[in-house]
Amino acid sequence: MLSTSTGAAHAAILGVGAYRPSIVVPNSELVEAIDSSDEWIQQRSGIKQRRFATPEESVQMMSVACAREALEAAGIEADQVDAVIVATVSHMMQTPAVAPLIATELGCDHPVAFDISAACAGFCHGVGLASDMIRSGSARYALVIGVERLSDILDRTDRGTAFIFADGAGAVVVGPSETPGIGPVVWGSDGEQYDLIRQREDWRDVVAVGSTAMPPLTMQGSSVFRWASFTMAKVGTEAIERAGITPDDLDVFVPHQANMRITDAMARSMKLPERVKIARDVAEQGNTSAASVPLALHRMIQEGDAVSGDLALLIAFGAGLAYAAQVVVLP
Ligand SMILES: CC(C)(COP(=O)(O)OP(=O)(O)OC[C@H]1O[C@@H](n2cnc3c(N)ncnc32)[C@H](O)[C@@H]1OP(=O)(O)O)[C@@H](O)C(=O)NCCC(=O)NCCS
Q1: What is 186-329's CATH number?
Q2: Phi-psi sector, 244: left (phi>0), alpha (psi -120 to 50), beta
Q3: Which residue in the list 91, 256, 259, 298 is annotated as catalytic?
């Protein structure tokens, strides 16, 4: 008979870190190329500004910076980390993954390290995976990083995406806990809607026509809006129920920072009480895809809107289509 591993009774988020890249880009700097206005963008998306990375602020650099802050907040040394999970769609090497590079720069001791491609949903996928790994005994401490440099694959003249997507990185340390700290993940996908958010072309088609331009992101905005506003509220409600709580027990709601109107529609559909604090980082940061949930959570902690012991609903969704949600206890 084979031996099997057993892990900690429970897993929890132990620390949060963030890296916000240095180029601040207000709407006014984008509107000319897309024949838009600051007023239109704010009204339709809630976005006032976003941040783009400098050439030095690479996926690796931003990841290491936010991971160091998360480790320090958790009181964990890099060599205690045995899993590094990096959610990203903008590490521009098909292979190898960026996770081993990040782990080595951090000083981890040969951890399992891999990237996951679940677009804007990637960070919550990572938290779900890390929680399962810790409870099954395949890791004791895991770093989950969400990181993007979407400015590399943005068409600055596309009216549907140029004002939405941005750059940044956020991380959490997940580790063992005596009490439940991460509720059951509710996750899934819908490949029938594969084309709603995607890179415009396959790399092979780009090369076949002799182009050197990177295939940019495209999005069918109004279809994504409808899907996210209605279907994702059901996923959030299921995560609340599977955690064995009710919306009244929640303190904090940290949805993927896609768009302020989607956030408000979800909060209404889920009947969240007025006192639940809602993350609104999208106004300052734009939509940073896999980085958006940890960045938004980090801001809430920094600004005192979320405190240790709070119950938070995390939900992330995007290209695939893919989605994942869980209720967590904040560190
Ligand atoms: C992108 C989004 C803001 C566009 O808003 P919308 O109301 O769906 O826009 P539509 O494409 O239907 O166009 C509506 C009108 O706005 C205009 N418009 C579109 N983009 C515009 C822009 N960037 N600036 C100004 N006007 C614009 C259109 O021309 C159209 O004008 P008309 O009514 O005179 O024909 C919206 O679809 C959205 O937020 N989608 C979800 C995006 C998202 O969060 N994605 C991330 C998920 S991970």
Answers
A1: 3.40.47.10
A2: left
A3: 256
